Amino acid sequence: MQGRRVTVRLIRTAMAASLVLPLALFLFASWTAYERLQTTARERLVRSLDIEQEEAFKTFELVNLALTQVADLLTGMSPEEIAESEPTLHVRLERLSKAIRAVQSIWVYGTDGRPLVSSWAHPPPETSFSDRDFIQAHLAGPSQTYYGKVYASVLNAEPFFTVSRPLVLDGNVVGVIEASVLPSNFFQFFASLAYTQGVQYALLREDGTFLVRFPAVPAGALDKLGETTGFARTIRATPSGGFYSSISPIDQVSRRYAIRRLENTPLYLSAGIETAMLTREWLSTMGAHLIFGIPATLFLFLTLWLVLRRTQALYAEIDRRSKAEESLRQSQRLEAIGHLTGGVAHDFNNLLTIIIGNLEALQRQMAGAEAQLVRRLDRAMHGATRAAMLTKRLLAFSRQQPLSPAPIDVNNLLNGLAEFLRRALGEHVSLEVVGSGGVWPVEVDATELESALVNLAVNARDAMPNGGKLTIEASNTYLDDAYCRTHGEIEPGQYVLISVSDTGAGMSREVLERAFEPFYTTKPSGQGTGLGLSQVYGFVKQSGGHINLYSETGHGTTAKIYLRRYYGDAPAPRTSDQVSPRANSGESILLVEDDAEVRRYVAETLGNLGYNVLEAGDAKQALQQLQSGASVALLLTDVVMPGMNGRRLAEEARAVKPTLKIIFMTGYSRNAIVHQGRLDPGVDLIQKPIASDQLAAIVRKVLDS
């Protein structure tokens, strides 16, 4: 076995290595490729910013040059003088704005926000633009160049953002000079940079307001980045710019960004690449490795897996054959023990029938004899009764005792048994019987169930020599698939649980594993046969149920009996009328028994009860008497006989006399009248050893039925 484990472990190690090593190499290559891709992405973003910066610097240099020329043109002029010179100034401004492609128009505003002169319109509109940010910024305090946000044109022109300076006269701000810059000029340039999908370029102010964005800001989306965005956090940490990754609040796309401040301005240039695009590039790169790596790895792994399966199959086949051989030997041994037990039980029960019958007769005859002689007879009867019980327990363990199951109410059975158990347990053991409302009926042999509970109670009493508490409880339960898979010979379904719990010494694991073995006992010699739990186990299994023991040393034991639910109503208990066991006038019984001593005892007992008894030593003699026309009301026949068995005799007898009533006698019956531990329907049976009162009662019952 050690060699097997080493071999299997080595193969499994090789299988693990065939996956782990390629996986480790693949992960290292993936990490390397990912880092390389991130570095490449940073380089692409930096190159994009370089190009953006060059274009933006040239554009704003021209815009600032135009604003300087306008300021020089208006030097020393008051707003009134500017208004008076509007026609001439309009021409000059128009010529200047047309010279710069990025500039849409140039305007001069008074402090009230009304245009004094414009390159776009002559005369300028009378509308006040005092609400615009660039006018408010210059009027709020001394400032140099101001970059305003994007506005829609009121003159049906393109949208624009503003670059403005204050108009100063004698140290006072008397107006504003403003150039309207076209975002479309930057947009077209950014579009020319977008050589692949997934990139994004932008020109924005330091407060996060977009002046230009490619792709354009979707309709209805925000046009400004908030204070909590990656852009705001980055410029707070590094005013000159940097790198960050975030999900854009504009279009909800995750990107890797690089930003840079445009020198001497509050403007920033931004370039971004979609994270998904980088991921696709990375997956595309690693996919080439997977195309070759996965088939090779799978081939190696599957090869080793097949080797492992073949090895395990070989070992399993060796184990299966060993177990099959052991199972065959065990089956043959148990079969031999079963035949021996059956034969011994049959012969032993015949002998016990003779012994108990004659002892009963002797007790009746010696009713007035000396006390010492009566005591000896009683002891002999007690020994014979114990021998009969021992035989019965052996048959119970081997699941060969005939049962007469009937629907019963478990609560009623426990209540009826409680008083007997209290007397049997003694005063030092407290008994509590707990029923439950709505407990389902079960179909079992009530006598054998009572015997099983008594056995468990007696075992519990012996485990509590200094006193304790015994609790018997009935309830409904359900056994699911998971429980049944771990406990053989039981099917899932609804069961009635009878739990017998004590507060005794408990059992160790070793004792618990052998608790149901016949003749195994932990009691001192002479204080038990070791068949009590074996009988309980055999009865429960034969009844289609399940039993389990739970025990902990020093804390007691719980035996749980699960009996399958009976789908029907339990019959109400009936009290039978007391009838005389003696014969009516003219009643004849045909007795068939191959053992002469047993036949003599039964015939004598029936004769003393007033019955006319015809005797036969085998089935052939019995049929001859029936065919001769003898008047017989009842056939009392043994089951196991040489030649024709009792069941076959009953069938032949019924063919001769259809109204004939039949009782079977047996000390052990395999399959003649008992199948799966249950008496066949309509069968009346008396078990050997036969007591005279039992014989009288069942004969009278069958004849009167």
Description:
By secondary structure, this protein is an alpha+beta fold. Among the domains are: 63-178, PAS domain (Beta-Lactamase, 2-Layer Sandwich), CATH 3.30.450.20; 185-278, PAS domain (Beta-Lactamase); 410-564, Histidine kinase-like ATPase, C-terminal domain (Heat Shock Protein 90, 2-Layer Sandwich); 588-704, Rossmann fold (3-Layer(aba) Sandwich), CATH 3.40.50.2300. The chain is 48% helix and 21% strand. The chain is built from 17 helices and 24 strands. The strands form six sheets. The chain has a five-stranded antiparallel β-sheet, sandwiched between helices. Strand 9 and strand 10 form a beta hairpin. 30% of the residues are buried. Mean pLDDT is 82; it is low at 575-579.
Radius of gyration: 54 Å
Structural class: alpha+beta
- The CATH superfamily of the domain at 410-564 is identified as Histidine kinase-like ATPase, C-terminal domain
Main sheet makeup: 5 strands, antiparallel
Number of helices: 17
Total number of strands? 24
Please give the order of strands in the largest beta sheet: 2-1-5-4-3
Give the CA-based shape: rod-shaped
Helix content: 40-55%
Strand content: 15-25%
**N→C terminal distance:** 66 Å
Summarize this structure briefly.
By secondary structure, this protein is α+β, with helices and mostly antiparallel strands. Among the domains are: 63-178, PAS domain (Beta-Lactamase, 2-Layer Sandwich); 185-278, Beta-Lactamase, CATH 3.30.450.20; 410-564, 2-Layer Sandwich (Heat Shock Protein 90); 588-704, Response regulator (Rossmann fold, 3-Layer(aba) Sandwich). 48% of the residues lie in helices and 21% in strands.
